[in-house]
UniProtKB/TrEMBL annotation:
GO MF terms, alphabetically ordered: oxidoreductase activity
Domain Amine oxidase, residue spans: 16-273
Residue segments, region Disordered: 486-515
InterPro entries per record: Amino_oxidase, FAD/NAD-bd_sf
Pfam short name (any one): Amino_oxidase
Coiled coil (UniProt feature): none
Name of this chain's protein: Amine oxidase domain-containing protein
Amino acid sequence: MADIKVDVLVIGAGPTGLGAAKRLNHINGPSWLILDANNKAGGLASTDVTPEGFLYDVGGHVIFSHYKYFDDCIDEALPKPDDWYTHQRISYVRYKGQWVPYPFQNNISMLPKEDQVKCIDGLIDAAMAARVATDKPKDFDEWILRTCGEGVADVFMRPYNFKVWAVPTTKMQCQWLGERVAAPDVKLVTRNVILNKTAGNWGPNATFRFPARDGTGGIWIAVSDTLPEKNKRYGEKGEVTKVDAEKKIVTLKDGTTVGYDKLINTMAVDHLVEKMGNQELITLSKGLYYSSTHVIGVGIRGERPERIGDKCWLYFPEDNCPFYRATIFSNYSPYNQPQADVKLPTLYKADGSKADSSEAKPGPYWSIMLEVSQSTMKPVDEENILKDCIQGLINTEMIKPEDEIISTYHRKFDHGYPTPSLEREGVLKELLPKLQAQDIWSRGRFGSWRYEVGNQDHSFMLGVEAVDNIVCGAVELTLNYPDFVNTRPNTERRLDQPFYSAGTPPKELPTREKA
């Protein structure tokens, strides 16, 4: 017999696990418990704070949403207007010493003339080839060539995507793309080149929100705080060491056993099957590929430079820096770094030379967060990664050699990006149903391994929809139909609506006239 018994057990208190817990609490039906090995909620959407007081998220996270239920839940957790800042995305690609507005492929009017010619030639060739193509692209590289042409592929898409994914584009499938990559409009691009104009903002995150305090992690701590304490078990007492799928018992690090009827797992699915000890599933999971992410933070003394301005995040396809993306984290909130009156000593100058003085001095301060990918196909010099990144900031003119470095941060996340590899769907179509046949719903960024529904709103709703599937058999739209949920307002669920499971209809059913 287990020490604790619940109807639904949720492993992991990141966005997916909290989505499941929030829905279970909303339904107020099945008994439930949520576990996490960390002392605080957030998972891969957490925020760290350096000893000097600089905040850094686990990678580049901002809030933009496809779902009203997600909006309701985070607004309930952080309800005051001054809990949030709203920003217009100001994003650029660094190329040959200049800033090209994002998306790059729509703004080749900013490139040197020889690159413009190369890119337009490729775009025209691609457009002509697309008119007679009878088959779909077999991989991401072929999609790039058919959509953008050889010029944009060589100048930006191939080198940038290798820096992001740490695998060649030829080893990635293209079904994941959806709203993630802008397809250029050949006529618009050509017109802008002739008129020397740039294209406007593109994509679902052109406007985004960011929490005023505590970083992205603060959102999920606040969401967790809306849940009953008796249903939460965090820290060592919530760390899973074994999953017995046959007996439906989970063993925790402190020896406690938890029995369940249904299990919603949000830890990486390859870790789950190892804790299950199921050799068939372990072998199957080895067909899934991922890359690691290094998050680097640099805190700098001084006013934010004019050349940085109000930029949000920036892309770096070239090899003069190890990072693929830089976020001006101090631009998201004035509370992401120490206030100007806080006195801090200089660690060293950006070029590595000694500080002029060891005396603690006041600010102001600003900060940059960098991301570097790593895989077996793209090794990283981990010992020197911080130094190499700071040199990369100098190389790309983000900072100057004499700038005073006040604080640094480096953390490696082994599971950073779930790679949409050519083999992925074949594995998932076998692995996820095998788990579900054992009453295990594996969901989330690495729980279900689908990057295209790996944003915070998607991840949260993967948990919500898993609960609805368990309770009343509802279709999990986000997991199974990403393009559908990404191209419509998803307003069916609201936090203030009562939940009715099968067999307990509302007192008055809506009619066509009333609807």
